[in-house]
Design goal:
About 35% of the residues lie in helices and about 35% in strands. The strands form three sheets. It has a four-stranded mixed sheet with strand order 1-2-3-4, covered by helices on one side. The model has no long low-confidence stretch (mean pLDDT about 85). The protein has two domains: about 100 residues, 2-Layer Sandwich (Double Stranded RNA Binding Domain), CATH 3.30.160.100; about 45 residues, Sigma 54 modulation/S30EA ribosomal protein, C-terminal domain (SHC Adaptor Protein), CATH 3.30.505.50. It is elongated, with a radius of gyration of 31 Å. By secondary structure, the chain is of the alpha+beta class. It is built from four helices and ten strands.
């Protein structure tokens, strides 16, 4: 793990260095002790505001966090908490990605003649839109469906208060599904 410090309008003290490096030792489990990890800590002072910015370069990813506080140690601690949150999220995303790619390989089945054939994907459910279920009779639902371009209409029967579906048949008539 490599650290680089930049102080803008302030000298970076050994205590601040120790504070940052001690906190990053706690994050070692997230980065798996990766030696390619590079961290740039920028400390800035503007009037009575202490600004701590941390930029972490890990693999091909860049994690950045910036925090402002009256206390420099608190600003750096909060920025490191943000970095930890980003790193855990990124690592979880990478683990999920590798597990998903492993599952897709297992779907490919080999034929006896040596050719590979992929199994078809299962059909996906794609959410379309929400429908307002209004109380009406089956005849009113048929009239409303004839005015619309939809193929079906979900309605609540005004007499029985039960749900029903009326749909357009291929022969031009309407079908009714009731529970």
């Amino acid at each position: 793990m490599k650290f680089e410090y930049t102080g803008r309008h302030v000298e970076v003290s050994p205590a601040i260095r120790r504070h940052v490096e001690d906190h990053f030792k706690k994050l070692d489990h997230v980065f798996n002790g990766d030696s390619t990890l590079s961290t740039h800590v920028i400390i800035d002072v503007e009037k009575n505001r202490q600004i701590g910015e941390i930029i972490v370069y890990w693999r091909d990813y860049t994690l950045t966090a910036k925090d402002t506080n009256a206390d420099m140690y608190m600003a750096l601690t909060r920025a490191m908490a943000k970095i930890e949150k980003q790193a855990v999220k990124l690592k979880k995303k990478l683990i999920d990605r590798t597990q998903k790619s492993g599952k897709s390989v297992s779907r490919v089945a080999s034929q006896p003649d040596g050719q590979l054939e992929a199994t078809p994907r299962p059909p996906r459910i794609i959410p379309a839109r929400r429908y307002v279920v209004k109380p009406m009779t089956a005849e009113e639902a048929a009239l409303r469906l004839s005015d619309e371009a939809d193929q079906f209409l979900l309605f609540r029967d005004a007499d029985t208060s039960r749900l029903g579906v009326i749909y357009r048949r291929k022969d031009g008539n309407f079908g009714l599904i009731e529970p």
